[in-house]
Every structure is written in C-alpha cells, then in structure tokens.
Queue: 2 jobs
Job 1
Amino acid sequence: MSDEAFPIKTEQRGTVAVWTIDREARMNALSRATLLAFGKLAREAAENASIRAIIVTGAGEKAFCAGADLKERQGMSENDVRVQVELYRAELGPLDRCTKPVVAAINGAAFGGGLELALICDLRVAAKHAMLGLPETTLGIIPGAGGTQRLPRIVGEARAKEMILLGRRLTADEALGWGLVNRVTAPGTNVVDDAMAWIEPIANGAPIAQAAALEAIDRAFASSLDVGLELEKVSYDKTLVSEDRREALVAFAEKRKPVFKGR
Ligand code: COA
C-alpha cells in the first residue's frame, strides 16, 4: 500500500492528469486520507491550466474502488461515520464541480462509494471484467455520496431502484447497455490507455467550450427546460468571446486542425 498520508498516485500524460487510488491491498477503498487527497488534487487541478482533463482509476486489476473503507469504519462511532459521510461531500465536491472533463477508468469492481465516485465523473470507461453496484441497502445503509441522486439521472428511476433495492451488480457489458458506462475496453487493452485514446478530442480540444458545455449540461438537471435553455445561452456566451472560437473558424477556412489555447 502507498504512503497513507497521500494514497493517490498522480501522473501527467500530455494535458491529461491520471490519478490512481493506490490502496490495492484494501481494494482501493475510500479512507479518510483518500477523500482528503481527492479534495486537495481537485482544488489544485482547478488552478492548473496545463491540466485539461482528469482520469481517475484504481491500482491493480481487481478493483476500481470497493467503496467505503469498511475496516477503517469498524472502529468508528455513529458520529464518526456521520462526519466521514460529510467528508465525501466536502472532499469529492471539488471533483464534481470541476470545470474540466473527469473520466472514470473503471479497472475492476466499483461498489458503493466506488461507483458513486465514478458517477461523479463526467464519462465512464470500464474494463470488460469490471462489476458495478450499489450494495448499501444490503448492508443496512443507503448510498451516501450522491448515488441515490446521480444514478437515476443516468440510468432512469426504475433501473436505479433495481440496482439500489436489490443490490444488483452489473457486468461492464450490462452497464454499457444501461448507459451507466460510455464504453467497454476490449480485453487485453489497458483501460487507462483506452480512455486516453478515446478522450483525445478532449485533451486537444477547446477548454473554454468544454467547461461551458459541462456547466450547461449539469444545470439541465437543476432547473426547468425554460430556465435550462436560458442557462445554456449564458454558457454559450462564454465561448463566443474566446480566441479558441475564432481559431476554429480560421483553421476551417485554412483546412487545418485548430490549435486551442484555452483563451
Ligand atoms: N474496505 C476495506 N477493505 C476492503 C474492502 C473495503 N471496502 N473491500 C475489500 N477489502 C479488503 C478485504 O478485507 C481483503 O483484505 P484481507 O486480505 O486483509 O482479508 C482484501 O481487500 C481483498 O478483498 P477480498 O474480498 O478478499 O477480494 P476479492 O477479490 O475476493 O473481492 C471485492 C473483491 C471488491 C469484490 C470484495 O472485496 C468486496 O465485495 N468488497 C466489499 C465491497 C462493498 O460492499 N463495498 C460497499 C461498501 S458500502
């Protein structure tokens, strides 16, 4: 296991930051230190213009993240657990609100808080052998890191209830069929490498437009359609004044690929 003081390994590949939960012996479960590390990294990434997208993954091939660290939780009082659940909101919030696209590369099991972490991400790529589920009700609790709110938005109410009430675990192919993941990586290919290649249009794309699109899409679920369309207009205006938008028009006329500078 990595140094528990900082349990997430970081690497930058071009414009993409790859964050790997490095707690393989505990199936990359979310300890207090792991949540704090996510908060720190996401806050720093927000200020770092060299990062245009983030890939979140787990060490090894067995687990993306097995949810709450149940061993750490064993020693906790009721109040400690309450504080810990609050910590999910406080420390995963910056990743949720991140203006750069965040992609989960699901390299294995994503259960409980592990799947909730993937649901916070904007896009999900899963290894063929990955399993996904929210088993909390089978453990006498409910998903507490946004799962009850985000899952129905992604797969619909009936399927969310099926997963949450039955504790149903989906294979990667089933998850693809339900729209829970965007893509399943072919066996024999590393899921992070596959995600890197797949998001090439993001890595070399126009960051202002991407941030504006994310903002508008996220707001679609927080308001009526009329209000949402107004909000889309506000987000669109941010791209209208950008150099990147003009560069794309010039590049089109010159029959070349645009070079986006995020200005
Ligand atoms: N928290 C802390 N440790 C965990 C963990 C968790 N959430 N999940 C697994 N581990 C530990 C196991 O205790 C075991 O440790 P040990 O070697 O000291 O006994 C080690 O990781 C390997 O787990 P194991 O269950 O033996 O591996 P497996 O390959 O048979 O199964 C999983 C992997 C992920 C399917 C299985 O560990 C699992 O279902 N974990 C619980 C997931 C869960 O219910 N999360 C929701 C919490 S709300």
Note: The longest strand covers residues 8-13.
Job 2
Amino acid sequence: MSVYPISRPRRLRRTESMRSLVRETTVSPSDLVLPLFVVPGTGVRRPVVSMPGVDQTSVDELLRDAEEALGLGIPAVLLFGIPDSKDETGSSGYADDGVVQQAVRALKRAFSELIVITDVCLCEYTSHGHCGVLQGQDVDNDATLPYLARMAVSHAAAGADVVAPSDMMDGRVGSIRTALDEAGFAEVPILAYSAKFASAFYGPFRDAAESTPQFGDRRSYQMDPGNAREAIRETLLDVEEGADMVMVKPAAAYLDVIRGVRDEVECPVFAYHVSGEYSMVMAAAERGWLDGDRAMREVLLGIRRAGADRIITYYARQFARGPR
Ligand code: PBG
C-alpha cells in the first residue's frame, strides 16, 4: 500500500456523492422491524413516558401505525401485548381472544403483505412478572416450556407470520418447533432471541409492557453481560433446535456479540436496539445535548456494520421518514 502523498484517503470524502459511492454499509427502511404495544379496548393511544414517540395502542390505532410503517417501506412489526388480567401462569397470553391474537388477526386481515412477528414470553401476562412459571421463588424451566409452546401455537393460529421467543428458557425453541409442527404450523418460522442479556437497557420497555418482575431479577435466565463466547453457544443451540433466525439483544452495547454470531451462523441475524438504547438518545436530544436523528442513524449504522442483517428498533418510522 502506498503512503502519502500518493495515498490520500480524503479524495474519496470530498462530496456527498463521492462518499455515497464508496459507502460500505447502509441502513434502509427494509432492514427495520417496528415493535408495537397493544392494549385492550378501542380508541386507546397512551404515550409511554419513558419512550418518547412510542405509544400503547388498542387494535384500531395499531392498524394506523402499522399502515404508516408499511407505507414507509418497513416490512415487519413485532407485537407485544398488555393484557387486562394477569395470573400465575400468564393464561391471558395464550387465550384465543388475547390482545396479541386479536391484533394479529386484524393486522393480517388489513395488510396481508405486512410481516407480523409476535413476542413469545410470559412476563407481560404473569402476575409476578417473570418470564416463566414459578416453583417457589425460582423460574421453573421445564414447567414453562408447555406454556410457551401453547402461546406460540395460539399466535400462529391467529395468523402470525413469525414467532419470536424471548424468555431464555433452555429448550424452548425445540419445544415450540415441535408444538407448531404438531398443530399444523410447520411453515411458521421461529426468530429466537438467542443471545439475550440481563440488561439495564430494558428499563423503559418494562414501563411500556408493564412487565417488571415483582421480586428478584432475570439474571437466572437471561445471559450475563460479560459472556460473548456463551452467546455463540446459546445461538448454536437454538439453531440446532430449529431456529430459523437468531437475535442478539441489546444491540448497541453488544456489537462484538453481533459480529461473533454473524461469523458463526448462516441464518439471518437480527439485533434488537432496545428501549433504553432508544430512550437515552431521545432524552439527550430533548436536552439539546446532541442531534438525536443523526445520533440514532449512526447507532443503527453501527449495528448493521457489526453484522446485523435486520434491526428491531422503535426508531423505524422516524428513520424511514428521512433525515432531519
Ligand atoms: C420480554 C421482553 C423484554 C424485551 C423484549 N421482550 C423485556 C425483558 O426481558 O425484561 C425488551 C425490549 C426492550 O427493552 O426494548 N421478555
């Protein structure tokens, strides 16, 4: 490689057209998935205070948001439900007329081309707020699997295009795959939250989804933030159990993990740019401490550059509306 003055890297940075010509990584709306929070009722649109720009909505309002996303070129949404009632086993999560099931039916009826992904986890539906059923104070792994499988099947029966288990129980991908196949949903793919870390960055989401654990924390099932090699192990186990797509979560604080997973598997790799990662940029922007739109675009680009094929982000619509 020649050096200065032969070599002048600035030659390729002189104009936006030149920079654009040689840009290695880009983000487009078609790379993004928009998470949506659905609540019972009609005409409900309740802003989530800790996530500016994000609302909890009833199904009718959800349809508007989904339509806007689709119109902006965002191909998929990820649904979370906030039910009226919660119990020990999260039964409102696998009820045929549950909030998510109703939302899926309405979305697929209105926009057949929109990819509807559902989050499969008990935490929004259990009275204790944990992602599985309890045995004393412990989350019982094996006893939880049938509930998750039942929830996934009920989502598929409602018409979900993809189910995405986020609970981090061992063996859930295999259990869900078997249950889907037995119920006649062999064609419904699984997007596994494979490397999901026990993160402080889920704070604002737990406000949005009303899913804060009533005691303890999630460290006995979500991964320890120090473990990148274990993330590969978790991912390979999920692929072996039948995951069609895998996910790393959070994203921006785990770029090395995204790269590691991307280099290890052939299937699509998603990264979840989570609530706290979104809200901290929004909060800094509100204070005038940085240019929120530019900062958000830079973070999303970084997540893509690290190796994520697709990004789940609350910023999807703002991103797709174009730079400000
Ligand atoms: C449910 C779930 C969580 C998120 C996605 N699915 C929260 C948690 O594990 O506490 C977090 C998403 C976000 O912070 O944006 N298990």
Note: The chain has a mean pLDDT of 97.
